[in-house]
Write a structure and sequence with these properties.
The protein is mainly alpha-helical. The protein has 3 domains: about 45 residues, no CATH class; about 45 residues; about 35 residues, no CATH class. It has a 3-stranded antiparallel beta sheet, with no helix packed on it. Helix 4 packs across helix 5.
């Protein structure tokens, strides 16, 4: 509920005794109620005498539903797609910091500034995007450094 009622701690103890009398193994939720709710409400709930409704599963599920909508509408790719990890990070950054997905710049640390791919050599620009050296005959990084600009 919204507020803790007098005797709430004793009610948890009585629930535990009643559960034990059934002979059933405790579920995860039963374990949480019996072993963690009292500590959580006593130590971590910032609103005096607040019940669990402020921290309920429903609020977590509502958050998940909103996040799932953002993922589905703007970022979703097949988990087997090589872009999946980056899209997942973009989604989390966008959702948590209310950024547009393209505002969240990403720096990648590569062990080497280039890697060998099956189709040829692939370099990376300063943003970590792959640049094919076969498409123009020269790396985009080489062209920008020749023109006096740094990437």
């Amino acid at each position: 509920g919204l507020h803790r009622l007098p005797g709430w701690e004793r009610s948890i103890e009585e629930f535990g005794v009643a559960w034990d009398e059934t002979g059933l193994s405790p579920t995860l939720k039963v374990h949480i109620v019996l072993h963690h709710v009292q500590e959580y409400l006593s130590r971590y709930e910032s609103v005096a005498d607040a019940g669990l409704s402020l921290s309920s599963e429903q609020s977590g599920e509502a958050l998940h539903a909103r996040l799932q909508r953002v993922w589905n509408l703007r970022f979703k790719v097949n988990p087997d797609n090589s872009l999946f990890p980056d899209r997942l990070v973009d989604c989390m950054v966008s959702y948590n910091w209310n950024l547009q997905w393209d505002e969240a710049g990403r720096k990648r640390i590569e062990p080497d500034s280039s890697r060998t791919a099956e189709s040829g050599r692939c370099s990376f620009d300063a943003e970590g995007r792959g640049i094919s050296s076969e498409s123009s005959g020269a790396s985009d990084l080489d062209e920008s450094s020749e023109s006096g600009t740094e990437s």
